[in-house]
Amino acid sequence: xxxxxxxxxxxxxxxxxxxxxxxxxxxxxxxxxxxxxxxxxxxxxxxxxxxxxxxxxxxxxxxxxxxxxxxxxxxxxxxxxxxxxxxxxxxxxxxxxxxxxxxxxxxxxxxxxxxxxxxxxxxxxxxxxxxxxxxxxxxxxxxxxxxxxxxxxxxxxxxxxxxxxxxxxxxxxxxxxxxxxxxxxxxxxxxxxxxxxxxxxxxxxxxxxxxxxxxxxxxxxxxxxxxxxxxxxxxxxxxxxxxxxxxxxxxxxxxxxxxxxxxxxxxxxxxxxxxxxxxxxxxxxxxxxxxxxxxxxxxxxxxxxxxxxxxxxxxxxxxxxxxxxxxxxxxxxxxxxxxxxxxxxxxxxxxxxxxxxxxxxxxxxxxxxxxxxxxxxxxxxxxxxxxxxxxxxxxxxxxxxxxxxxxxxxxxxxxxxxxxxxxxxxxxxxxxxxxxxxxxxxxxxxxxxxxxxxxxxxxxxxxxxxxxxxxxxxxxxxxxxxxxxxxxxxxxxxxxxxxxxxxxxxxx
Length: 508
What we know:
By secondary structure, the protein is of the alpha/beta class. The strands form six sheets. It has a five-stranded parallel sheet. Strands 1-2-4-3 form a four-stranded mixed sheet. The relative contact order is 0.09.
């Protein structure tokens, strides 16, 4: 007696199809699972045995062999419990085997036979739809998440007996909502809370308009963290495709998903985080903070306090938008299309250049060496945040999130109109070929850029990043061509003031 059930295993943030083959034949009683299964899958034997018996059926006194194919693919997690139980029931004739050919089965079993939710349901549902299956049978709590996938039948069940009734055609299970509700979250803080800081606010708008990375430097308590936490309030809303990706990542990471996530993620890990916690890893590769911030903001407060290994691990994710984790001769790819915003102090005490500073020159040099040149070269905007003047604190807000969001959306619309030619949704994602197709400099701007590069103020990578920022500034101004003023502002947000004044003087 042989039965086959379709289920899925998680690989990175995607799902891979797995065929659960259950063979029941005469011989010494035994229950064996083969097919490169991890410990949690092998332990499913006891959960399946108890769930079947506590649901009113009896385990056959036979030799039971379960094969998880393909055998070269590592399987992990308790989501195989329900598929193994259904395959066993089909092999002994308790449920029709024909129905199992058209649906996927996914869920964890309790010893009582009740179903428990599993992580990664959205990725599994997407895999079932891509495989051409008619539907998916899973725990009732997971049905709203699976319902985000259009064109897939979702059958929610509370226990194993209800699953058997669904497979016999006696019921459709717990109906999933026609459209899963969006996950609600707290409203982002507003820029109207900020007093003073005109230059940092301008840089924040440029960063939001072009998706650029940004580093703020200044004494403690001047408002660096406050500015960073208000960046999401001026970012454009997620598209449905982006929202599905964000929701899938949260689900794979094991975080509760009440519905479609519609707000961009904002992740702010502590500086004690390890390299694997930041970019992903572990014995069974799991997404890190860089992946959890995909399509959102990764905020690293006190950047110089992070370990050198963690910061250097960010190089590839910042450049490629993805990170590849290799474990046991298998590679898992995690998306890392985040926007990096970081803050740091100018010295260990944070009061460099004031009577309060007691740091020696060697202390300052050692502190600054924690941030490597290759990492800083991947950051587009370097902004100094100074202590606001007393009159600025007493005055009203400089701007609001609503006003800046409108300007950002207009700039993003101009970038989207060029996306067909450049192949990128925002300026920060432009590759070198796309950058040269969409950036047109006037004569003076071209001279300014050549002088800056000739003086060694820019690396080849920095040359392209300055062009991207200048293109964003021109988009905010509604200009078709990048002028000298746009380029000089981009240089001022990246180079030392002395270098920029020398370049401007030569261009004039």
